[in-house]
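B., you asked whether I could sanity-check this one before it goes into the benchmark set. Here's the sequence:
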Amino acid sequence: MQVKKKLKLFFEIKFFMTEILSKQASSILLAKEENLLNWIDILQKLKRTFGSDIYESWIKNVNLKKEFNHYVVLSVPTRFVRDWIVSRYADKILDVIKTFKKSIQRLEFSIEETQEKSDSNIFSKKSTITSIENSFLNYNRFSPNNRFDNFIVGESNELAYTAARKVCVQSAHYNPLFIYSPVGMGKTHLLNAIGLEVGNTKKAMFISAEKFMYHFIRSIKKNEMVKFKDFFRAANIFIIDDIQFVNGKEAMQEEFFHTFNALIEKGSQIVISSDRPPSNLDRIQERIRSRMSGGLVIDIQPPDLELRIKILKSKFQEIKVNFRENYDLSDEVFKFLATEVTSSIREMVGALNRILAFSKINTKSPNIYECKKILKDFINSNNKQINVELIQNLVASHFNLNIQELLSPRRSRSLARPRQIAMYLAKQHTTNSLPDIGRKFSNRDHTTVIHAVKK
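And here's what the prediction gave me:
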């Protein structure tokens, strides 16, 4: 009897323990199920945290590969992307993940190429020329029409012209050479002329900021950043046009900063153009502005009436030679064009082309009355162009100041009052928002603009 009782008790205890273990196991599994991270939800929060630009450029292609109790493994497409995220965004990414699972203490990264990338690597192995190397001809193919000998020099652009000629003879004398002016004043002409002058003896590279950005993004996607760096740092003279277009693009600014430093260290000449001085470049890293200001900064002022007439006559002679035209324009017509179209040289030449088209069709030189009819919309639109930069120049000129003084942080009455007037006029006569106006006045806060308008 005792043996039977013991056996019965043994089986009851075994059954009871089995039930407990089964319940514990199921609760553990359920807990694990509940604690599994939903990566789609995390990506949505990362997008809100970092903003669309950074998310689309860097975070979008990050995936959750493995999840453990105290850390997660994230997959990224390239080593460059991994290094970039680790150095800049890893802490914030970890903070976001911890809001979903508090036990996560660290991140690990795994580099995994996508199928599309693997296919592109197979293709690149078949070709010995990469997309960057293949496009090198695009960056030393200069326009033969923009030379030093057909650049019309006057008081407004003489200093920029002289400095451009100087860097062709003695590289790194002014380094960098930074030329700025409103659109259509001849910056690109001078940059192109530098490339033409030195192209036969040195490795000169001429690229716009927009194309630099295009190849930067393309190199990241194709995992060709080493080739990108080597390619753009090989130039003896590196010429980049319209640098203002890198504003707000943090990743590209980072690469441009390192390219700039590498070129300076090897003794290469850097030439930069922009539509504003370095101090006025919005959303550009301070260290980049500082380096661009460390060389020679020169502005090209709008040409006076005499220079505009000389430019028009020079362009007209070029057209006559190239297209074998046999008609002439009177001095009165040249003066009319130079007086009425003053916003930019490019628009002035465009107006000249319209007059020449009329002359060719009607086989005669138009009089002033006919010129007014031909350029009616041209002149009206030209007269309406008012922007913050124009207002700043007019106010600075009226108070006998230069632009640097008007935009400086100094608060003396002789500077503060003209600055407030310029802000008020910018609010009244442009469509710029208050923060935009503040940024154009050396990144001042919009509340400063509000105070100026009230004052």
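One thing to flag: The chain has five domains: 1-35, 39-115, 137-299, 305-383, 388-454. Otherwise nothing jumped out at me.
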